[in-house]
DNA sequence: CAAACTGTTCAATCCTTATTGAACACGCCG
DNA sequence: CGGCGTGTTCAATAAGGATTGAACAGTTTG
């Protein structure tokens, strides 16, 4: 029975894939991000396909997706023909930012719909509006958080003297 | 060309479904929640199947899912044979709470994996750990927010004199 | 007790999205 | 120019979940 020993690296990459999937994204995107985090230096698409056993198409598509979401950046040193990608310092910051934006969008549409309820449905309008405001406030809150992180990245790092 | 006039109610319910789907949940769960928010009072499974044109199975399953997630509560007044559900005051509070819990779970697994990296991969370990800590801090932040909301629900309501 | 009613479970179906293989486009090199 | 290396696009396939219909279990009613 094949020992199926999984190294920390393999384990991390696998979990990154599952986690990303749990959050509604493509599994492979998470795996690529995990791979880049472990490696710590730029890696080419070819290296990804090799390391993760995925198709060229997936590597290309998902790497660009990560770049779009802001978790990863494309680098291309002179004299290097292949595209390479590397993980940003705080790849998950982008995820949180996107979350806030999504919530704000939800708040906007809900607010608009709420305003459409006629006086005869004042109760429903009230409840819908309240619902929308909740999302807006949460979006504001998340924005504060990401802004704080952006200006003081150490907040997100492990700190020895927890200043709680 | 059928006028396809959509009332605010229909529109709201539809958008709730799409929004929920966008967040990775079942569309019907969102629709049910939307329906209950608009109605403002308990509604039975039969009423849901009728109003939303969904199967009995979906109504049952998704209503219980919402209950489990804490967006909705089951009520059964005496002399009432059917189960009924009603939306809680701040249904989306549960969503945010769940988000925080999920992030904390992510943080835990990542931290554990990070600890498994040997000294020879100190760099990778550092990066993985940092990644985990980011999620943990974010989870803490979200917990603070939900706690604040729980003790002072008006925060989530529309306020006329924005105390920003 | 039998019939009617209600909620749950579960296997089958449907739908959406992720993933892939193959064709394509572009640039470089000989 | 003609071939090679590389990244992207796109139609087709695969995979994963949501949704449903039908069977089931439990309760109430007459």
TrEMBL record, chains A, B:
Residues 27-81 form the HTH marR-type domain. Gene3D superfamilies: Winged helix-like DNA-binding domain superfamily/Winged helix DNA-binding domain. The lineage of its organism: Bacteria, Pseudomonadati, Pseudomonadota, Alphaproteobacteria, Rhodobacterales. Keywords: DNA-binding, Transcription, Transcription regulation. This is HTH marR-type domain-containing protein. InterPro entries: HTH-GbsR_regulator, HTH_MarR-typ, WH-like_DNA-bd_sf, WH_DNA-bd_sf. The keyword Lyase does not apply. The keyword Transcription regulation applies.
